[in-house]
Description:
The structure holds 3 protein chains of 3 kinds.
Chain A: E1 23-32, E2 35-45, E3 50-54, H1 61-68, E4 76-81, E5 84-86, H2 91-96, E6 99-102, H3 114-119, H4 128-142, H5 157-169, E7 175-179, H6 187-202, E8 206-211, H7 214-220, E9 223-228, E10 231-237, H8 243-251, H9 257-263, E11 281-291, E12 297-307, E13 311-315, H10 322-329, E14 337-341, E15 346-349, H11 353-356, H12 364-369, H13 382-395, H14 412-424, E16 434-438, H15 446-461, E17 465-469, H16 473-479, E18 482-487, E19 490-494, H17 498-505
Chain B: H1 4-35, H2 40-51, H3 55-81, H4 89-110, H5 114-143, H6 147-165, H7 201-218, H8 220-230, H9 232-237, H10 243-270, H11 281-291, H12 296-320, H13 326-347
Helix pairs in contact in B: 1-13, 2-12, 3-7, 3-10, 3-11, 3-12, 4-5, 4-6, 4-10, 4-11, 5-6, 5-10, 7-8, 7-12, 8-10, 11-12, 11-13
Chain C: H1 2-31, H2 39-54, H3 59-83, H4 88-111, E1 126-127, H5 137-142, E2 143-144, H6 146-164, H7 166-176, H8 178-183, H9 188-215, H10 226-236, H11 241-263, H12 270-288
Amino acid sequence: MIARRTHEAAPARRTPADETPALALENITKRYGAVDALASVSLRVRRGTVHALLGENGAGKSTLMRIAYGLVRADSGTIAVHGAPAHIARARDAIAHGIGMVHQHFTLVPVMSVAENVALGGRGMLGAARVAERIRELAVRTGFALDPAATVSSLPIGAQQRVEIAKALIRDARILILDEPTAVLAPAETTELLRWLRAFADAGNAVVLITHKLREALSVADDVTVLRRGRTALTGRVDGVTRESLTLAMLGEGATVDQARDVREEATKVGARAASAERAVVYRAQGLTVVDGAGVVRIRDTSFTIHAGEIVGIAGIEGSGQRELLRVLAGRMDASSGVLVRPSRAGFIPEDRYHDAILLERDLAENVSLRGAGARTGTIDWRAQRAVTDRLMRVFDVRAADARAPMRTLSGGNQQKLVLARELQSDAAAGSHAIIAESPTRGLDVRATAAIHARLREAGAGGAAIILYSSDIDEVLLLATRVLVVHAGSVRDAPLDRDAIGRAMLGLA
Amino acid sequence: MLTRQPRLRAVLGEATRVSVLLASIAGLSALLLVAGGYHVGAGLDALWYGSVGSWYAFTSATLVRAIPLMFTGLAVAVAFRAGVFNIGAEGQLLAGAAAATAIALVVPRVGGPALLVVGLALLAAAVAGAVWAAIAAVLRARFGVLEVISTIMLNFVALYGVSYLVRGPLQEPTRVYPQSPTILDTLHLPRIAGAGRLHVGLLLGMALAVIGGWIFRHTAAGFRLIAVGENPSAAASAGGIDVVRTTTRAFMASGALAGLAGGVEVLGVTFALYDNISPGYGYTAIAVALLAGLDPWRVMLTAVLFGGLEAGAGAMQRDAGVPSSLVSVIEALLILTIVAAQARRLRKVHAPDVTFLDVRDR
Amino acid sequence: MSDVVASFLAATIRTAVPLALAAFGELIVERAGVINIGLEGAILAGAFGALVGASTGSVGIGFAAAICAGLLMAAVFALCVIGLRTDQIIAGTALTLLSVGATGTLYRTMFGSSGAALGIPTSALLAIPGLSSIPVIGAALFAQPPITYVAYLVAPILAWWFSRTHAGLALRAVGERPEAAEAAGIAVDRARVLAILVGGALGGLAGGTLVLAQAGTFVEGMSAGRGFIAIAIVVLGRWTPLGVAGGALLFGAASALQFAFQAMGWNAPYQLFLVAPYLLTLAALAGAVGRARAPGALGKALERRQ
């Protein structure tokens, strides 16, 4: 567990109430079409502090910070850095003002070296030796050990994040914005990062930490601001708020107990965990080995059994082999050796639905018909397909005009619900014996997330085997009746315990 | 059930778009004529009577030219729909023309009913086109070669291939002219009565267009092709569709249609093989298909439109001294306008109800 | 025998220079993540521009006009694919069609439909003292029109620029990961427009070379697929300047074989020689693709997340 400020930095904290903020965003407004992404939002980040910026997906956190970093232009509002008005129209301006940003999806060029990535954005001649020297200086200053010559794509995720931070620091960033930095990290790495951020702030800098994890905010931040639907729902010192007040601020007055429960991090288990032994076997793997297209062994000689009605959570650091494991279980990829018994029909909800699950320009009936299209022959009765789609839309609460609406016109949450509806299709003929869901709630708001969770639980209760991967261990713990941890190609059972899973993800016993 | 009103609105919308299109072509032509310093009145006059000014012009010039454009336009539509950028309709047409000529010249020496020979020649044309496309299809599937480049290279190879044939194995007996002997009168495609030089190739093209549109709208195979063209990874992952097989088949079907264009042209219009048998039908086909929104049914219309444009351009060159290459400029500007409008539409989150580039009336 | 070798070398260089210039242009464009199929159109426009420019009597104006014509085509392409976000393949194809139509129309309008050969000045050979007197290779490599020496210089300059300057690094990042470049403060679209313009200028220069340093006249459609071959050369050269230079020389050598064969009295249908570069392109692509890695964002517009 992350101990709350038990480290040496705590005494250095100041409460400089009179001091001008390091970064002040005043009355920022941004509209996309008819939608108010941000409606007169203000944010003041004091020097020497970590400021947590909380909110649901779509609340406007990232947009606000992209404005501060010059990637998005505000319709109105002002920005001041250390009290001086700043005109930030491009990222270059923000960098010049000492602002650095670490994006949720890293902005690194994978095929380039660490040195090249760090040098990116400079002017004039490019001296490899000089860049390498500066990276080594930085390493001494910050404790970040980075090999300037290493290719970024060969680095583990945690190291890539350090490259991102190094990029900002090498340009003398004094104000560091991090967008969901812990989403990709294992628990131990998270602790390390938060500790480093604390020390960075205590040295007189400022940190904005975008997150949706209350625990993180409460453990590391001095100040907290909550955005809800583009407005400031709450702002103040962290000492003055509680977990409950933050939850309420994030979800709004109308939030139900059920929805609040889903964002709660210390998940208390709901529902009885099925006794798996007496259920039918859906998957049986024996000596399973999976080699990917590039010839890399992703899963090595692994054995497990999955029963009907189980919700099996899969945990693992990116690149550990879980991506390939999920695809083999879903029948989208073949095992290289070993025995794998898998059901003939498995529903698959891939992580990147735009890339792997939907036809954005086609209508909803066509998207539903996509399932099994490879094996269909003859003609398609579109009227019947539209009727099926209409029914799925009703049952799964997909908000759209009708089955002829193009997929593009739906919100992300409704698109995901339709994908889920398609893969779960309850009628016996097309029904699935197993559902493989890969980060099914990524990017969705809390209500859509709750709806997806409920559907997965229902399907499990209905006798399907559910296999759920999420980079968020809390989500895994919330739903799973059992957890399999993938580490460096090996798969093993882990107890339903956050710390034990975290250790297993890092390969520690 | 569709109510009457939306359908009426759709028809009106279509009519509006066609009028806007025709007006913009006329305007564009006038503009280019002015820019080139030509007599605008004489130029547009020639464009008019060369294309639709008389029944003879409409049937014997416009529709006759529309036939190869219909086949090649269909070819491009099928390929583009599957996400295959087949720019090689020209080469596939030439391959088809050469194969049809060879069959029509060689088989009668052995004997056999004319109808059978014609059928055989057309079949050979389709096969030759498909084989020519298959080279690029295999290069794409096996080696990841960009089909745009490979098909253009194959166009040049086909061009020089025909050049070799009409000066070598297929040259007429006197060995004076670079062309093949003329095929027997009995093997000519029948003309449509009362319509000048117009031949039954038009009906064949229309039949294929109707069938093609029906396949896209109502069959599992057509849906697979559309799904693969729009998002190959989703088609593979969510639909279990074999993407390589689907694109390869679409590519070869496209080649077969383009090859058929060559066969029909030889048997219906030129009756012999020679250099420049195609004035770039395979390239114009790209404009034909894009303007039709890659919808086979609409290809019938846009093929006639471009057939008229080409016929009119011929008259402009003859009678008003305007270079016929002006048509390429118009075609290119039309393509750019269409894709720009399409890109604009795709960037909008809420697409307008009906657009010109949409197949939604199933 | 050394005569044959010398004339073979000279023919190799002659064919390779316009291909190399165009391929260097496409290399810059593709490293920025854009594929410009309209390169063929830029070459053709450049050739026509050179004709118009040189009809003033000056070779220099001819080359300048060739560059301008290439730039004009590139500007239209940039407007379409960067400004309007149209599909790059279709826009490039349309642009080639536009160039074929426009140069044909203008040529007949300005110089008569007969298309009579025009007397325009051509680039004189410039023998480099010392180097040009090296036996066998000297005359072939160093007694060439000045544009040849320009082509010699482009590859090392480009190689240096890509790896040793921040601007070169920025361009590569734009082609690999535009989002990363943008976050580092690089204006992605501006970088791509500049790359497209430079690529168009080099394409135009290649067309100018065909007219002013080789044919001495303009023929409709005289680019004859060189733009597409140049794109293949970029793939063959694995997106590196020196690789591209090697690829261009390979194509030059293949085309020059016909002179060598003729000199040796070898007989074959002449179409076989004409078709050789296209067949070689196909073979080269089949062999080269898969072993090389294209820029990560090639052909994709930068999508702004909202």
